């Protein structure tokens, strides 16, 4: 597990309803950070069904979900769980913090 935080963007660059991507500085994992009504959530930027970027998908702020553009799998932005087929496995969820005027995330998996 890495203790190194990856800079995603300046806090002013991630407004409610927006998302930003980065790659973990240590593991290289793709990360997407969502601003859902002012609360930040980070997921691995990879659909568990077909290994495609979730950041390319449409966000449903009311449901708190993101839909993969490839086959329509939806995931809960808050906890990464799969909401419908064809995905059954959750997406990895990562910690997010705001520090030094920026948004930071990290792949905290062992």
UniProtKB/TrEMBL annotation:
SUPFAM superfamilies, per database record: ISP domain (SSF50022)
Annotated keywords: 2Fe-2S, Iron, Iron-sulfur, Metal-binding
Entry keyword Metal-binding: yes
InterPro entries reported in the protein's UniProt record: Rieske_2Fe-2S, Rieske_2Fe-2S_sf
Pfam families: Rieske (PF00355)
Domain Rieske stretches: 6-105
Tagged with keyword Secreted: no
Protein name: Non-heme iron oxygenase ferredoxin subunit
